[in-house]
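Lab notebook, bench 4. Still working through the backlog of constructs that have no structural model yet. Next entry is a single chain of 196 residues. Request: give me the structure tokens for it.
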Amino acid sequence: MGPPQAEAALREAMVFGADKAVLLSDRAFAGSDTWSTSAILAAAVRKLGKGDILLFGKQAIDGDTAQVGPGVAAQLNLPQLTDMVRICELGDKDIILEKRTDLGVQKLRVTLPCAVTVTKEANKLPHPTIRQWEAAQTKPLVRWGLQDLQVNPDQIGLTGSPTRVVRTGVPERAGSVRMFENAKELASLLITLETV
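Model written out:
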């Protein structure tokens, strides 16, 4: 989902093996927050038909919320797994994969169909060949807009987005910064503060 220029990113995906791509692009989608974006993507998945695994990036670089993949999974009533780093085994009815957690890596089995968000560390792609690039330029790329999806216009774009960005900016620094040479110096300060 994105502006017409997003076709370049989809062509790149086809360089690395995707057979076809669908670009969801419509002025009505502009201003969609994660809720509305999830509704649009879920409508596209319904139109595409049944799939085994929905793969999402972990998070976008603009909002940085990591909510769209799980939001689509919720709208489609699918099990979801976030922060996947490696697929261990793919069966007919389930997938075993590793996900990153605060305490390390956890191995899990998830039933299919499912939605998975993938970390950028999950895979290193080889450099594409000229033939792969040329082939990707002729693969089918379909464009769908609001009229192509069964989605309520009141639930998308700025109108359907419950999130409002009032302003953005760099936070002002309140106070000064003190650098410590070692943990002993920090511990001494904390002990002093605790007795005050």
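Notes after review: Helices lie at 7-15, 34-48, 68-75, 130-138, 157-160, 183-195. The radius of gyration is 22 Å. Flag for follow-up if needed.
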